Structure formats: C-alpha cells, structure tokens
Amino acid sequence: MTSKSSQFNGRLVIDLGAIARNWQGLDKISNTALTAAVVKANAYGCGMVPVAQALARAGAQFFFVATPDEALDLREALPEAHIFVLNGLYPGAGALYAEKRLMPILNSMAMLDEWLNLCTQKGDAIPAGFQFDTGMNRLGFRLQEASVVKARMEGSGYKPQVIMSHLACADVPGHEKNGTQRALFQSLLAQFEGIPASLANSAGTLGGRESHFQMVRPGISLYGGRAIQGRPNPMAPVVGLEMPIIQIREARTGESVGYGATQTLNRDSRLAIVAHGYADGFLRALSSSNGRPGAHVAIRGHVVPVVGRVSMDSFAADITDIDTDLPTPGAFAEIIGPNISIDDLADSADTIGYEILTSLNGRFDRFYKDESGNIFQE
Ligand SMILES: *Cc1c(COP(=O)(O)O)cnc(C)c1O
Predict the structure, then answer these.
(1) pLDDT score, position 260
(2) Of 18, 91, 251, 356, which is most buried by a Cβ count within 10 Å?
(3) What is the pLDDT of residue 6?
(4) Per residue in 133-145, pLDDT tens?
C-alpha cells in the first residue's frame, strides 16, 4: 500500500530464501510428483512477483494463480513459466489466454465448450487443465459429467495437461472425507488414462504419498503457514512484521482500555500503544476483553498481551511485566517474527494463517530478503 519508505513506518520483511527452502523441502517430500507453486492472491500477501521469481530460481516451473489478471502479471515476470488459472476460463478471455500461454483449469461444460471451440478456430490443441469436483461443491465438473467430458475430449482429439480435484478436509488428516474424495478421484482417473493428475494442496502434500499423484499444489506451506491442524509445522517462517510504539502510558486499576470499554484493568498497568490496527491487517478479532484473551505481540523479546479492542490505527499492549529495558516511543513491537507466528495470530483471531497473511496490507514498508540475505525493496 505504501510505496515510499519512511523511517516512521513499520517494516514487513519477506524471506525469499525461506520460501525457496520451503519449496525445495516440499519438492523432496513429493518425490517423483511435480511440485507446483500456488501464488494466487499476491502470493498469499507476500508479493507475487518477487516470490514467483525466487520460486523459479529454486526450480519451480508450474504455477497456479486464481484470476486472469494475476496470470498476466506472472507471465510478465516469468516468460517461461507454466501458468494455470484456477478460476478457469472467464467468458471471452480465451484469445487472451492463448496469446499469453495461460492455461485455464476448465471447471464446467460451458468453459470446456468455449475452450474446444477456440481450439478448433485456431486449429491447435491449446493446453488447459480439467477439474472435477469430488466433494467440495466449489469448482469443477460434476463426476456424473465425466463421460460427456470424455466424449467431447475424444471427439476433438483433445488431451488436458492435468486432471485435478481439491480436498475439502486435508487439514484434518483423519477426516473420512479425504479417503472418500481420493477414492472418487481414483475411479475418475481410471476413465482418463495417461493424463497427469493432481489432488494435493499443502496439507495433502505433507499428509502422505497417497494424495501426491503426478503433481502437488502447495500454497500456505511455501509461506511458512501451518497446513495440518494439531501437528508441528515443519516449514521455515517467512514473514516478519514490526510496528512502531508511539506512546507509553500508565493506567490505573479499574480503568478501561479502548472502544467499548471491553477490558477493565485489574492492576495498575503500563501500556504500549502500537501504531498498528485493523486498517493494517491486525484483525479486530485479535482484540481482548475481560471475557476473552486476544493476541500477543513481542516487545524487546517479551511476549505481552493485547489489551482491549484493536482500533483502526493502533492497539494497546500490556507491558507492566517488562521491568528492565523499558521500550520508549520509536521502539518496535514484533507483530510476527521469532516469538509470534502467523498461526499464533490466527489462533487468537479464530481464523487461519491464510487470512492473517492475505490481510497484511497496511502502513508499513515492504522489504524482501533474497537468498543471499540481501534486503531490497520491490
Ligand atoms: C489455494 C489452492 C491450493 C493451495 O492450497 P494450500 O492449502 O494453500 O496449500 C491448491 N489447490 C487449489 C485448487 C487451491 O484453490
């Protein structure tokens, strides 16, 4: 959001080396399956162009985005990459996809018809992927359409680059739906022999061989987020965010803090007011009240709680227990870093790391650390 950097702003640092190592780790786990990289939504808020370029340097050749505009930006950054568009073929976008070598994931009969007509027009089997829905009811042909899809495909001598589906519950490995979806996918594949298949997101990739097929599609794991609930997260952290403290204040027992007076102090307290609010992606759900604890942040290495409601531009942290080396205005609070992970924040807000990451658009400067440790701005 902020384009010029300022000594007064907070700092977001994206560790491209960690992203590269995470991709390489997943590539190892996925063994002989190709490891694609999902870089939709601005690479989960991390910055699509520098992230995709780092992934390409690490060896990634296949990328997934959600929309045509994301695909066009990625094509400019990576002229050689294989780019799939998960949302599929937008009506009328076929010529553009063909010109820019973007591969839609065809999700419906309407998309398939439009694509095959374009192929006929151009006299070329322009590459695309197919998605079948195996139990999520989001995108993809219904399984009952498999024979029609097959007939259309064979009728025009067309072969997709990949047949994919998506797991609804991969983050809970014991969920019975995983096995159900996998079985449905397998019986579908029996009808499309010889075409590469893809099922696994990050959780599916980390969850075991049986979901890998010929290509895996990790997203959140690349960015250091937890993919599987209730298991230690093996990925390297990628994101660091620190925001400035703008005031230190003393408050008394019985006083309340913040909008709605949701939290009353039960001791004389010292508060650090941090210039970071919900307008910057520090979700209001991270607020604390007397009934419910909120997020924690780290100040001078001490993990301290948020007090009261998060405002648009700031929140209060309770630093009463920091007794030496007190922070002063201008010092930084660690929002995400060695002491606070994106999943810690997600848990505090009753959400997932994905939402914490994609919400990080705020009044801070954005830096990248490259594979050699050099810091640069985009
Ligand atoms: C977003 C997405 C992924 C990546 O999921 P993660 O859980 O972030 O690894 C893979 N496949 C599809 C279809 C997606 O929409």
Answers:
(1) 97
(2) 356
(3) 74
(4) 999 999 999 999 9
pLDDT band at 8 (very low <50, low <70, confident <90, very high): confident
Instruction: Considering the candidates 122, 150, 159, 259, report the single residue annotated as catalytic.
Output: 259
Q: Is 42 in the pocket of ligand 1 (CB under 6 A)?
A: no
With 80 as the cut, is the pLDDT of residue 78 above it?
yes
| Ligand 1 proximity of 204 Cβ (cutoff 6 Å) | no
> Is there a catalytic annotation at residue 40?
yes
Tell me the average pLDDT across 237-263. 98
Give me the torsion for CA of 109, 39, 70, 363, rounded to 10°: 140
pLDDT score, position 19: 98
Among 35, 48, 86, residue to substitute to test ligand 1 (most atoms within 8 Å of Cβ): 86
Rounded Cα–Cα distance for residues 239 and 283 (Å): 17
Q: How far is CA 55 from CA 214, 268, 279, 288, in A?
A: 19, 50, 30, 38
CA distances from 311 to 11, 198, 232, 260, 329 (A): 19, 43, 32, 11, 18
Q: Please say if the pLDDT value at position 2 is more than 50.
A: no
